[in-house]
Each structure stands twice: as C-alpha cells, then as structure tokens.
Amino acid sequence: MDEKSSPIITALIQGKDTKGIIATITSWIFDNSGNIVYLDQHTDPVEDMFFMRIRWDMDGFQVPREELDEEFGRVCWRLGMAHRLFFSDKRMRVAIMVSKQGHCLLDLLYRWRSQQLEIDLPCIISNHDELKDMAGYYNIPFHHLPVTRETKPEQEKKAMDILRKEKVDTIVLARYMQILTPKLVNAYRNSIINIHHSFLPAFIGADPYLQAFKRGVKIIGATSHYVTEELDQGPIIYQDVVPVTHRDNVETLKRKGEDIEKMVLARSVAMHVENRVLIHNGKTVIFGG
Amino acid sequence: MDEKSSPIITALIQGKDTKGIIATITSWIFDNSGNIVYLDQHTDPVEDMFFMRIRWDMDGFQVPREELDEEFGRVCWRLGMAHRLFFSDKRMRVAIMVSKQGHCLLDLLYRWRSQQLEIDLPCIISNHDELKDMAGYYNIPFHHLPVTRETKPEQEKKAMDILRKEKVDTIVLARYMQILTPKLVNAYRNSIINIHHSFLPAFIGADPYLQAFKRGVKIIGATSHYVTEELDQGPIIYQDVVPVTHRDNVETLKRKGEDIEKMVLARSVAMHVENRVLIHNGKTVIFGG
Amino acid sequence: MDEKSSPIITALIQGKDTKGIIATITSWIFDNSGNIVYLDQHTDPVEDMFFMRIRWDMDGFQVPREELDEEFGRVCWRLGMAHRLFFSDKRMRVAIMVSKQGHCLLDLLYRWRSQQLEIDLPCIISNHDELKDMAGYYNIPFHHLPVTRETKPEQEKKAMDILRKEKVDTIVLARYMQILTPKLVNAYRNSIINIHHSFLPAFIGADPYLQAFKRGVKIIGATSHYVTEELDQGPIIYQDVVPVTHRDNVETLKRKGEDIEKMVLARSVAMHVENRVLIHNGKTVIFGG
Amino acid sequence: MDEKSSPIITALIQGKDTKGIIATITSWIFDNSGNIVYLDQHTDPVEDMFFMRIRWDMDGFQVPREELDEEFGRVCWRLGMAHRLFFSDKRMRVAIMVSKQGHCLLDLLYRWRSQQLEIDLPCIISNHDELKDMAGYYNIPFHHLPVTRETKPEQEKKAMDILRKEKVDTIVLARYMQILTPKLVNAYRNSIINIHHSFLPAFIGADPYLQAFKRGVKIIGATSHYVTEELDQGPIIYQDVVPVTHRDNVETLKRKGEDIEKMVLARSVAMHVENRVLIHNGKTVIFGG
User: Fold this and answer.
1) How confident is the model at residue B3 (pLDDT cuts 50, 70, 90)?
2) Do B27 and D27 touch (CB under 8 A)?
C-alpha cells in the first residue's frame, strides 16, 4: 500500500481532553509541509479523554525522520498528550503462539504470505509439535517448548529469550491453550492478542463450546482481546457471532466457531498492526481503516 | 394462512427415542385419510430424546375433531411419547405485560393488527400507565396494576384473575421490569416469554447496557427466553446481536438494543404461537416455519 | 442530546483535495475560541476529493451566529471547498410520503415521538387514505392526494405547495409507491430518501420480493438511497439483509423484508438528519455518529 | 461421524406431491427394521412438489445393501417419486478447479485434512501453476492445463479424461476464472459448484468488486451456485454478505470479499457432500444438517 519512497507516519495520541489539540497538531504538521492523509479522533465525555489517529506523508516533510519523535513529542507534551509514532516502512514483528489446533495459524500465515497482513513473522512458538509442518511449509522458524506445571516458568523464560532475540513487538495467541505468567504479560503489556472462543463476557474460561451447548444459546461467538493478568478480562478488540440451532452438538459448535475465531483474530491483528487501536481504562478505541 | 374451512392440526410430540415413531404416527394419519403438510423431527443423541412437529389437513380426516386428542393420544402413549395438539382455527390468547417502554409493545401490536401475528390479544397489564394510550389506540383493554414491594402479591393476584378470566394461554413480557413471583411463573410454566436486553448468559440482571458499556464489548444483543424461577436462566428461544463501537454510550447502546429487542421478541412470539417450540432440559428445540 | 444553551455547529465540507485543509479549518475554529467536539474526514484518492465533517461548540465562540456562514464560507472558499453549516438547535423539517403499507411510517413516528429522531414532522402526504388514522394518533397533518396517471402532475403540484408552505427540507418516501416527477426530484435534490425493498442493484423496479422468490436467493435485503431521476439508481445510504430459505414464499419474504425495510430507512433518516452524509459522483460518504 | 460398522443411508426423494408419501416410506423402513435417524421434508405448494431427505441406520436392516436401490426405488416409483441413495461409508469424490487465487482452495484443503469435509480429493486442475505448491503440500495430484481461446476445447477434454479416470462425482470451482463449455457442464449437471464473488443476481459477470465499488453499495456478498449453461444463473446454494463503507477501495473490497467467498463455498460444498441439497426448477431446497 505504502510503496512510495517516502513513508507515511501514523501518530496515536491520547490524554485528557482540552481545547485546541487538533488545531495545534494539524497546524504543526501543515507548517512543516506535511500532507495529512488521514485523521480520526474520539472524545470520551465520560472519561473526559481525547484520542486521535493522524497520518501524514513524509514526502517533503521538514522535520527529519530521526528528530521526528522528539519534535512531535514536544508538541504533544505541551498539550498533555501521550503519543506514539509508526512509520509505514517499518513492519511490526509478530510472534505467533499456538497449541494443537491450526485453523487460526493457517489463516494468519496465508494472509501474511498473500501480503494482506504486512508484518514480519520471525517465529512460531508452540507447546506441542503438531503444527511444525505447517510452519515449515511457510518457512517460519518453529520453536517447540512443551510445558508442564513444573517446566512452565523455565519454558516461558526460553520463549521470552526468543521473543527478545527476534525483537518481537506483538504476540498473537492463535489458540494457545496455556495461561501466560504475569511476567510475560507485563513484558508485552497491550501487545498480546488472544482469541477466546466465546462472545465474552459469556463463557469465560475453559470449554466455552461445551458451556454454550449446555446453556442452549442460539448464537455462539468469538472475541479477540489484549491479554491482561485477569483471565479473559482484557480490553476487547473485536467480536463476531454465528447462529446455531438445537441440531448443533459440541462438535459442530466447534467447527462453526472455528470459522469466526480465525476471522475475528485476523481482523484484530490487522487493526493492531495498522496502529488503529488505542487502549484506555480496560477498553479499546478502534479507528477506521 | 389457514383460511380453508377445514383446519390444519399441529401435533408436538416428545419422549425417549425408540424405533418406529415416525412410521407409526405417519401411518396412523395416512390410514385415517390425513394429508401431512409438514413434518420435522429432531433426535438428541446425548439425551436420547425424540422430538417431532407434524401437521396435517383435517379435510376428510376420519377421526372426528372431538375424539382426536384421545385417539392420537393413545397412539403416542403406546410409543411412550408426550403430545399436544393445536388447531389452526383456534388462536392462542396472549396477554402482554409492560412497564414504561413501548417499543416492544408497539411492535407486537402492529404485527397483530396487520395479521402477521395470528393471536387474540385480550389484555395488556402494566405496573405503570404510560402506555395506556397506545393500548387504547389499538382497542386493547389496559389494566393498570402499580406494584410496590408491599402490594406485589396482591397486585399479581389481580393480574392472575384477569389472565384466568380472559383464558390467557401465553404471557409476553414486553419489557416488564418486575420479577414475577414463583406462583405466577408456575401457573404459566413454559408459557411466559421474556425479552432480556443482552445476549445471555452475558450481563444477567439489571442494567445490561450499562454493564456492556463498562466491559467495552463490540456487540450487544437481545435474548428471548421462557421464564423460570431462576432469573434469566430459562430456555432460550431466540437471540440476535448488533455491532457497536467505542463511540457508543449507554444511551445509544439502548437505542440500538431496542431495535433488536423488539425483533427478537416478535420472532420468538411467532415461533411460540405457531407451535414450533419444544422444551427439554432447559433448552429449546425450534422447528422451521 | 445538545441541550445546552449554546448550540453545536456541524460543518460539512467537500472539494478537490489540497494540503492544509484540516490545519486551516481547525486553526480558524481554535483561533475563534471554538471547542472541536468531533472531526472525521475522508480522502478519496481515485477522485482526488476531500470530505470532512467537523463539529464545534458555539459556547464562547467569537464569530457571532449571524456572521458564521459568511466567515466560515470565506475560509472554505479560499481552500476551494464547498460547505454547509447546521446548528444543533435547528431541527430539520421532514415530510413523509406513504401509500398503503404502514410499517415504515409507524416506525418513524415512534422514533420521532420517543425523540430518537430529532426532527420536525409537519406533514404526511399519501396517495391513499389507509394511514390517515395512524397519522391522526400522532397528531401529524395528513394530506390525502390520490394520484392517477392523469392527475399526477396536478396532485404533485399540490404536494409541492404543501412542502413549500411547511418549509420542508427533507422528504422521506416510506414505501410511497409512485415514481416522482423530475420536477419534484430536482427541487429536493439529495434530499429525498427512498427505501427500496431489495439489496440494490439486484431486483430493480417492481415486485422485488417476487423477483427474489423466482430467483431462489438465500438472502433478501433492503436499500435506502437518495432519489434521482433514474429509478433506483441514486446514491445508496444504507443496506441490510436477512437470510431466507426454500420454505419462504412471497408472503413470508415480504414480512421478513418489512423488518429490515423499516430498520434501514430509520437508520438512513438518522444519518441524514444528523448531517452525516456527503454525496459525490453518485455515491455517499457516511461519517460515524 | 458415522464411524459404526454399519453405515447410515441417506435418501433424497422428490416428485409431485401426493397423499401418503411419508407414511409409505417410513413404514417400509420400519417394516424392514430400519431406525430412522433423520427426516426432513418440504412441500412446495406453488409447484405442487414434495421433497424429502430421510436417513436410517443399516444396522439390522433387512434389505441387503446390494438390493437396496432396487427395492427402495420400487417403493418410490409407485409414489411417482424420483430418488437417490447415499451410503455414509462411501465418500464423494471431488475435483477442485482453480486459477491463481488460493484462498478458497486452501480453505477447502484445510477442512479436508482436518476431516471437517469428509470427501475424497483425487485431483486439482488449474489453468495456471501458481497453486501447484499448495496442492503439493497437501499431496493432491495437480494437473496444469493452461487454456487459451484456441486450446480450450482440447484442454477441457483432457480435464474430462482426468475427471472420468478419477471417478469424480462433484467439481468445485474454487475461483476458476474460465467459463466451462456446455459439454462439461452437461456431463456434470447439478454437480459443479461455483463461487461467484457477488450477491447474485447483482453484479453478474466480470469484476463484480469493481462494479460494486462504482455503484457505491454498502454491503458486498458472495454466492455459491450450481453451474448451468447460462452464466451465473444456476440454482443458488448459499449466500453471505459483509458490510463495507466509503473507505473501501476495490482492493479492500476484494480482501473482505475473499473472507466470505471461502466461507460460502466451504459451507455449500458441505451441504452438497452431505446430500442436503435438492434442485427443482432452477432453485434449491437445502435441508438442515
């Protein structure tokens, strides 16, 4: 998409709402010869918070790339706003963690290879080895780190070494059936995306399809969210559902669910890597694509 | 729909699964010169239960109407099956209970008047009087029975007197914001339909839109279910959802929710009065229309 | 919503894309002490067009209301942008035209009375009198203007007199089964909203449910669009669909369709009266609420 | 699913409606000690046609497998009904034809390998070689038959030789961008499933996403249908849609469309291979799973 020589900047900004934020920032960009190609903002009157996503073209921009973060940061600081900058020519580095089920992994790999997902994929980590072949077909290094209650801290430490070595920004749990330790969760705060196979907050925890079957619901769902220390309580990114009937058993619920799991996960990974997600107070602000 | 002189019979049958149920029943109908116009069945292998809905034309049927229940009942009894019969020329008598919000009531009234819902509507009961005019416009008797903690048993008794006098089969709680007493619930077992403004089992109890707002979900829903003694735990009839975003506040969630509440309630009332719903073990079997 | 003493301004802006539009406009607002409460924009790279919706609070704004259009217009003019301004304390005046079917009309009336739709409703015009009572219940003047091929020009002239007298901004065709003359269409360019009972461009013209039945589609839809001289070819505002099956006949398709017709129409009327729609080249840009 | 030693029979029956069909057939099964595990039927009052899908267990069934078709056929013949029988231990043999885009193929291959789709996959035929590797990874023979206007009849003859040699029942066009000749279409009447990337009948023919973009629709869709001689006019099996906005360009429409194309195709292939589809008069009857 952004195949020009000069990259596009994406800035995310958030903080207490105050007058003049948009004017100040857009004027600063304009005064430095930037061409704004996208702006979306959201004001939360309950929290009195302001959120903005703004993108501009670096072509002819008068602030050099290496000074940009400092200069832009100063503007934001004066407004009391936190900020982050992303360059379109620098891809996010994403690690995928999986267990045995491959539907979400395969879906991500296909989108990655067909360049729908513009990310780097330096590694796949699994507590099983069923999906080693799939990773191999796509030439992604596959790290098999089996986990027992005893070996968990040790194996997760190995995982963290890999993540660090590979300069991973974002971890996608593509049906990884282990609960991460607080240590890992905190090291990748707001950067670990999980897919839960229910429409949260319904059916938290294990076996949501069995729970759904027992309750006799007429829709099942899937929810992607950022991982926090509390199980299935993190900020929700995206959700979708599919209708089911009395004819469905746990097995067919699983199959129908898989189709939305992979879709919901893929869409939320796209939202995340396109820097369209802001997080505040346990909830997400998702800007349009 | 069934405007011929001879009515259509709808039979609902359920019981432990056994060989020959369909053959026995369809042969009995055929041997008595009945023309089957609909048959749907469901076998639940987990519960080992059999469910069937079958409809046939009374035109030329050799068992007289007044003997039908006994004769058909004998056939079902031998198969170990429970049964119920409904005649297309006999409408269900439905009472609607409401509080202040009229969107569900108005929707039901419109469908009733335009004959989409083929029911009798002998009364509307409310603990408030806001919707008296609406009932008046449609010429439905409106009973205002205000409820306080103290007067609840007494007022509900009055309600039950009205229901009995009006020969009501089915009660629709079209956003009635009072919890019914076990006495009323038991008197109309499997015959009270409630609309809950969330996708159950998420957000049970009060203020589901506020709960949804706080959790930051990306879809909200509505659920219709039969009322049981446990709050919001009855068999689910129908559910639907609508996507929401970070821009929604509690007020806009309510508005978006109202649109699906009335749709979900109307559809489940139609399913019920068309005798398409069977209940077993806290869950529903819903046959196609 | 905007119940403060000082209103909110909504500005719609569109024109050829150029550098500095957002900066110029937001700075002008900021320099005049306006507090921006909403901004969304869209750049169409194919058409090289820029579209913006921006809202700010008039509280303490230094340009007096009566000079606002001229002052703001000058800013836009220099950028080569067309503009329109709307004040939150001035409601749109909407006329509804209907024929015999009342589901869309009733839905709009309910939303109007419950203040979900913040509009003035000075008149309902119909070529039949079936819905006179419904209008009466809501105390809206009802004009019965029966139309034959011969009387059409004359009757439409009467309709236009009423619309002019009532200072109507927007006409909603809530299942009005007559084709408007070019004269009326041109007089209310981009201001007449129609609901078509199919997912356009499928099933243009008469009897879309019959067409859908014959084709054996598995979904049916509804489409709202602005009326242009070419039948069913105007800019699409909103669409929705509902699944159907082989069990549906033309009659049940109609019923299922009605439910989405009224929803689609209501949502698009809301989009229009909230000034969220821009039109360019036969297509709409719809900004978020 | 049907992993017992004795298979399940699925019978599809259709013909002019008459009294006693269900009774006759279910009694015949019962009298021969068959246990009916599924029955669904549909009566089309417009066409006066009867359709039935019935499944029973061969365990202890008194008609030997090799005589079943003749015996059951005799029962159907007397009722004036056409019939087909399928045994759960005999898988359909499906050939997939593709061009360059792999999303539908990959989805089918994954479902096949994970045994969600219980079919044999003896060959993939393509007019390009881009997807050879993907076929290779799943160990499916890949036949590259490039097609030009001149070579089309000759290459299609080769394809038909392969199909015949591999005893293929069903052909799935998983985004095969060539129009088949009438010869091939007729040889596999009602057995070639195509995915068209629009909600038919909208946007028939080439480049439906470009057509959708130009028209400015707010939903796009995908349609699976049986291939007939008339382009995109065959009986529709399944359709689904996804909402889009003014922000979408042709490229993003394609991506969003791909997600529903593969889902719609996979579901309709499942419906077909589970023998749930009956065809009459250019339309399908789809029985529940």
Assistant:
1) very low
2) yes
| A259 interface with D at CB cutoff 8 Å | yes
Task: Return the beta strands (E) in C88-191 as ranges.
Answer: 92-98, 119-126, 142-144, 170-173
Please indicate if any CB of chain C lies within 8 Å of the CB of D205: no
- Asked if D202 is an interface residue toward chain C (Cβ–Cβ < 8 A), one would say yes
Is the distance from CB of D224 to CB of D264 less than 8 angstroms? yes
Q: Which residue segments constitute the domains of chain A, with CATH numbers given?
A: 8-87 (3.30.70.260), 92-286 (3.40.50.170)
- Verify whether the Cβ–Cβ distance D26 to B29 is below 8 Å: no
Task: Decide if pLDDT at B4 tops 60.
Answer: no
Q: Which of A65, A67, A57, A2 is nearest to A30 (CA)?
A: A57
Taking CB atoms and an 8 Å limit, are C106 and B102 in contact across chains? Answer: no
pLDDT of D285 higher than 90: yes
C5 Cβ under 8 Å from any chain B Cβ? no
- Give per-residue pLDDT as tens, B162-202: 999 999 999 999 999 999 999 999 999 999 999 999 999 99
Of A202, A237, A239, the CB nearest to B201: A202
> Is C114 in a helix, a strand, or coil?
coil
Whether the CB-CB separation of C228 and C252 falls below 8 Å is answered with no
B31 CA to chain C: closest CA distance, Å? 27
Residue D109, min C-alpha distance to chain C (Å) = 26
Is there a catalytic annotation at residue A232?
yes
How far lies D11's CA from each of B1, C263, D7, D280, in Å? 31, 42, 13, 16
pLDDT at residue C271 tops 90: yes
**Mean pLDDT of all residues in chain D?**
95
Residue A252, chain D, CB below 8 Å: the answer is yes
One-letter identity of residue C274? E
Peptide bond into B146 cis (omega under 30): no
**Residue among D199, D216, D235 minimizing CB distance to C202:** D199
User: Is the confidence at residue C289, as pLDDT, over 80?
Assistant: no
Q: What is the mean pLDDT of the segment spanning A149-169? A: 96
State the helix-helix crossing angle for A21-31 and C21-31, rounded to 10 degrees.
140
Tell me: the pLDDT tens digits for D103-126? 999 999 999 999 999 999 999 999
Q: Establish if A255 touches chain D: CB-CB under 8 angstroms.
A: yes
CB contact under 8 A, B286 and A239: no
Residue D96's Cβ-side half-sphere holds a number of Cα atoms within 13 Å equal to: 31
At B43, the pLDDT band (50, 70, 90 cuts) reads very high
Alpha carbons A120 and A116: distance in angstroms, whole number: 12
Q: What's the confidence (pLDDT) of residue C231?
A: 87
Span C155-185, pLDDT tens digits? 999 999 999 999 999 999 999 999 999 999 9
Alpha-helical (H) ranges within B63-137 are 65-79, 103-113, 132-137
Contact B196, B223 (CB under 8 A): yes
- Asked whether the predicted pLDDT for residue D156 surpasses 90, the reply is yes
Measure B155 CA to nearest chain A CA, in Å.
33
pLDDT at A1: 42
| Between residues A4 and C78, the one the model is more confident about | C78
Which of A19, A29, A35 is facing C35, going by the closest CB pair? A19
- Beta-carbon contacts of A148 under 8 Å, excluding residues fewer than 6 positions away, are none
Show residues of chain C in contact with A33, CB under 8 Å. Answer: 19
Alpha-carbon gap, residue C52 to C48, rounded angstroms:
14
Predicted confidence band of residue B1 (pLDDT cuts 50, 70, 90): very low
The full DSSP string for A4-54 is SSSPEEEEEEEEE--TTHHHHHHHHHHHTT-EEEEEEEEEETTTTEEEEEE
Alpha carbon distance D48, D42 (integer Å) = 10
Distance between first and last Cα of chain C: 12
